[in-house]
Each structure stands twice: as structure tokens, then as C-alpha cells.
Specification:
The chain contains 4 helices and 14 strands. The protein is mainly β. The chain has one domain. The protein has a 14-stranded antiparallel β-sheet with strand order 8-7-6-5-4-3-2-1-14-13-12-11-10-9.
Length: 249
């Protein structure tokens, strides 16, 4: 379930301002909570690709404190997209649970043949035709970050985890203010979405929804999210933000 919750969180991190809303070197950190108890940290970075104009997104997740002792979990995800943020090029995910061997998933996109191939633990497990541009579970969210946000806006695009392809959506419902522990009261957009069909987080909670708060300024950083899960509620709150740079090294 932890893995599915993380996929849900990536959706939230996708929402931000249009036209160059993030730069190479950007780093965003969050605290993760389950029923008010801190269970982990999530760090996301935008990384330049050597000798290429492509974007590379990286996420590192790990449990902390008591949660880390009870259930040690680490995850790293790397996604690569084209410079125009129109489609995913590659995706790789590695999970480490306690002392167990690492598990991995990979999606290779072949846009010339319009197909994708899905691998699990380096073994081919299937493939899908690509009828139109699509994103993986991480680059999908950066695509959304590059869109305009305003009350009444509904944003969508195609998303794949290598096993299926769906249309992901998020609805901006209103403007409000929210108190964040380290940043005080901030003006935000309130966003609702139901991603149960993809993440699996809400499938056992009737009428569950994702609640998201995106700060209303030039950065439009996602500051908080909350959703009901089978055993209570899961939330994330912004802990630190480091702006990127407009030019690569």
C-alpha cells in the first residue's frame, strides 16, 4: 500500500504554473504522515541530462524514525522526458524493503514503433501500443506542473504504469488559504481528484478523494495533500524548497 500512496503523491507534485515552471536543479522535500504520525520523507529533483536537452526527474523516498524501524522502505525513481514535455522516454523504479533484495520496474518507450515494453526485475512482462503521447507515473506529474491553474480548470493527459494506460485528471475547485507548519498561512488553490483507478489507494474506501493544496504564487509549489486509505488517512506537507537554475552547468 505504501508504494500506491507514493504514486498518488506524485500526481500532486505535478501541478504548477505554465511555461518553464521548474528548472534544472530544483529540489522539493516533504514530510509524509499516516494518521498524524510521521512515517517518511520524499525528495524530488529536476536533473539535467549530459549532452542532451531532455529533462530527468528523480524521486527518493524513505521511511524514518519509528516507522523506519518497523517497516524499512526506500524507493528511487528516475524518469526521462523530451525537452518539450510532450512524452515520456524512459522510466525506472527501484524498491528496497528491509534487507530483502531490491525490486525493480522499468518502462521503455519506442515512439518510432509507438509501443512500450514493461519489465519487472529486468524480465519482460508485457507491452502496450501507444496511440498518443503518454507519460509514466512521474513525468506525468511534471507535465501537469506546466499547466495553467485556476478555479474551474480540469487538466488531463494519458498516463501509463507499463501495464495499462488511462486518462489522468485533476480539477481546480477554489482559492483559499492554508496554514503550513514551517511556512505559516499561504494562499493556495484547492484541488480534488480521484485516482483510485490507477493508484489503488482509494479502492477500499467508499467515495474517497484526494485533497490537494497548491500555493498561489510564481512558484506554485504543492504544499499539502491528504487522502483516506484503508486504515486511516495519509498526508504530506512541504518541508523545504530549493529553486533551480535557468541554465545548465
Amino acid at each position: 500500500m505504501y508504494k500506491k500512496i507514493m504514486l498518488t503523491f506524485y500526481f500532486i507534485l505535478s501541478l504548477r504554473a505554465p511555461g518553464g515552471s521548474f528548472e534544472y536543479g530544483e529540489k522539493v522535500s516533504y514530510r509524509a504522515y499516516w494518521n498524524g504520525i510521521r512515517i517518511g520523507t520524499v525528495t524530488m529533483e529536476v536533473v539535467p541530462v549530459a549532452n542532451s536537452k531532455d529533462y530527468q526527474f528523480q524521486v527518493e523516498i524513505k521511511t524514518v524514525s519509528l516507522a523506519g524501524k518497523i517497516y524499512s522502505f526506500q524507493q528511487k525513481i528516475v524518469s526521462r522526458v523530451d525537452p518539450g514535455l510532450t512524452r515520456a522516454l524512459s522510466y525506472r523504479q527501484e524498491n528496497q524493503k528491509g534487507k530483502k533484495p531490491k525490486k525493480s520496474e522499468r518502462i521503455d518507450f519506442d515512439w518510432n514503433k509507438k509501443t512500450l515494453t514493461y519489465y519487472k526485475d529486468e524480465k519482460r512482462r508485457g507491452g502496450l501500443p501507444l496511440a498518443k503521447d503518454a507519460f509514466d507515473p512521474l513525468s506525468f506529474f511534471y507535465f501537469f506542473r506546466n499547466q495553467s491553474l485556476a478555479p474551474g480548470v480540469l487538466i488531463r493527459c494519458s498516463l501509463t504504469d507499463g501495464k495499462r494506460i488511462i486518462d489522468g485528471t485533476a480539477a481546480v475547485t477554489k482559492e483559499t488559504r492554508l496554514k503550513i507548519k514551517k511556512f505559516g498561512k499561504v494562499p493556495v488553490w484547492y484541488i480534488e481528484s480521484d485516482l483510485a483507478g490507477f493508484t489503488g489507494v482509494s479502492t477500499e474506501v467508499k467515495d474517497a478523494k484526494l485533497e490537494m493544496w497548491i500555493v498561489r504564487d510564481a512558484t506554485q509549489i504543492p504544499v499539502k495533500m491528504k487522502t483516506k486509505v484503508k486504515y486511516g488517512a495519509f498526508s504530506m506537507e512541504l518541508d523545504d524548497y530549493q529553486a533551480g537554475r535557468k541554465k545548465r552547468d
